TrEMBL record:
Domain of life assignment: Bacteria
Protein name stated in the entry: CsbD family protein
SUPFAM superfamilies according to UniProt: Hypothetical protein YjbJ
Basic residues bias: start-end ranges: 1-13
Similarity comment text for this entry: Belongs to the UPF0337 (CsbD) family.
Domain CsbD-like: 3-54
Compositional bias of kind Basic and acidic residues: 23-58
Record lineage: Bacteria, Bacillati, Actinomycetota, Actinomycetes, Kitasatosporales
Positions of the UniProt region annotated as Disordered: 1-58
Pfam family, one: CsbD
Matching InterPro entries: CsbD, YjbJ_sf
């Protein structure tokens, strides 16, 4: 898992969410929102993992 992958997932989810909103497709909107939140969680896990590795090194 990496911060870049999490960020990419967030962007993809936002695009899907926006497209769903523009097409009035509630399911696509919900899928995009879920994907965006999943990406945010992945990014946070990656950041925490990096911080733990740095803390162990000190």
């Amino acid at each position: 898992m990496s911060k870049a992958k999490g960020k990419a997932k967030q962007v993809k989810g936002k695009v899907k969410e926006t497209a769903g909103s523009a097409m009035d497709d509630k399911q696509m909107q919900a899928e995009g929102s879920a994907e965006r939140m999943s990406g945010k969680a992945e990014e946070m896990v990656a950041k925490t993992s990096e911080q733990m590795k740095k803390a162990k090194g000190k």
